[in-house]
UniProtKB/TrEMBL annotation:
NAD(+) binds at G31, A32, S33, G34, G35, I36, G37, D57, N117, I140, A141, N142, M251. The active site is at H200 (proton acceptor). Homodimer. One of its GO terms (cellular component) is mitochondrion. Belongs to the LDH/MDH superfamily. MDH type 1 family. The keyword Acyltransferase does not apply. Keywords: NAD, Oxidoreductase, Tricarboxylic acid cycle. This is Malate dehydrogenase. GO terms for molecular function: L-malate dehydrogenase (NAD+) activity. It comes from Microcaecilia unicolor. It catalyses: (S)-malate + NAD(+) = oxaloacetate + NADH + H(+).
Length: 338
């Protein structure tokens, strides 16, 4: 995988891993000692785009930071442990990635994580709103359909809300869709691009296979099976790990891809497109993932849904009730928080 990290990129909607551009970004990972946090931090440490890597967690960060700091790349790694060191970890950060939170166990939905993770995300994003209000905030912690509204409400409460800088990381859904389609069609997965829109839980995950490049066709029954597999791919991993957590390595890859795309765009690279769950006017849901053109200040342009097949339109309309309920749950949580 590491060779891909230094490969030039040619296409948009795609692997930010390859930019040779130098940057001096300070990136913080909150939850850096976890199953996602550690491999994600490794990938960030390996990037020429990152000059400072701040690793924050409530456990084990001195060890993770010491370990990563011996890698012969230029990013300076610093570990921060416990709430009293959180403000310092965020100082001068341009990008903050948040994988802190509990993962699913078999039989759980992402919404079952709400009670624990809502508090963790609200606490961490309150610190971001105070100490790095201009940073790009990338939330991995689930349920993403609620943790993005939570982050937005926290930033609003602090009077520093900028919807162009708050991202729900759904990249793993795109990564999975690309991989599964490539497998079925005998294609190189690195050349497949499928936008995945909507949200990041079950039926709210909507792959737009009609917009796949290269163009692919499936009979309706196969299309429905494939769509279902993409929607439940996280559960596939949760079951296979049998109680030991959810996707970590593929999520670290996807999180790094998203951060590198963002850094490339912040660095002035043109035509960088990624899907992300954000504040949106594209549908009746106030937050929705669609392909976004990224730029120096975050979201430059929402590229919208494009032309949907009748099947995809049905999936979008069927996702609305769940999406709106998860969003409201997140918003209400912050409103009721002291
Ligand atoms: N967006 C996605 O596509 C996606 C994919 C997979 C997992 N996830 C989510 O990512 C989250 C993390 O998953 P994981 O497998 O890395 O879990 P994990 O339990 O392995 O790691 C979580 C880390 O968060 C830390 N943490 C807990 N509370 C914290 C706090 N208040 N401040 C800072 N750090 C804190 C823990 O100490 C731990 O190191 C989960 O919510 C999971 O559901 C999202």
């Amino acid at each position: 995988m590491l060779s891909r990290l230094s490969r030039p990129v040619s296409a948009v909607l795609r692997r930010g891993f390859g930019s040779s551009a130098q940057n001096n970004a300070r990136v913080a990972v909150l939850g850096a000692s976890g199953g996602i946090g550690q491999p994600l931090s490794l990938l960030l440490k390996n990037s020429p785009l990152v000059s400072n890597l701040a690793l924050y967690d409530i456990a084990h960060t001195p060890g993770v930071a010491a370990d990563l700091s011996h890698i012969e790349t230029r990013a300076k790694v610093t570990g921060y442990l416990g709430p009293e060191q959180l403000p310092e970890s965020l100082k001068n950060c341009e990008v903050v990635v948040i994988p802190a939170g509990v993962p699913r166990k078999p039989g759980m939905t992402r919404d079952d994580l709400f009670n624990t993770n809502a508090t963790i995300v609200a606490t961490l994003t309150e610190a971001c709103a105070k100490h790095c209000p201009e940073a790009m905030i990338c939330i991995i912690a689930n349920p993403v359909n609620s943790t993005i509204p939570i982050t937005s409400e926290v930033f609003k409460k602090h009077g520093v809300y900028n919807p162009n800088r708050i991202f729900g990381v759904t990249t793993l859904d795109i990564v999975r869709a690309n991989t599964f389609i490539a497998e079925l069609k005998g294609l190189d997965p690195a050349r497949v691009n499928v936008p995945v829109v909507g949200g990041h839980a079950g039926k709210t995950i909507i792959p737009l296979i009609s917009q796949c490049t290269p163009k692919v066709e499936f009979p309706q029954d196969q299309l429905e099976t494939l769509t279902g597999r993409i929607q439940e791919a996280g559960t596939e991993v949760v079951k296979a790990k049998a109680g030991a957590g959810s996707a970590t390595l593929s999520m670290a890859y996807a999180g790094a891809r998203f951060v590198f795309s963002l850094l490339d765009a912040m660095n002035g690279k043109e035509g960088v497109i990624e899907c992300s769950f954000i504040r949106s006017e594209e549908t009746e849901s106030p937050y929705f993932s669609t392909p976004l053109l990224l730029g120096k200040n975050g979201i430059e342009k929402n590229l919208g849904l494009g032309k949907l097949s009748a099947y995809e339109e049905k999936l979008v309309s069927e996702a609305m009730a769940e999406l709106k309920a998860s969003i409201k749950k997140g918003e209400d949580f912050v409103k009721s928080r002291k």
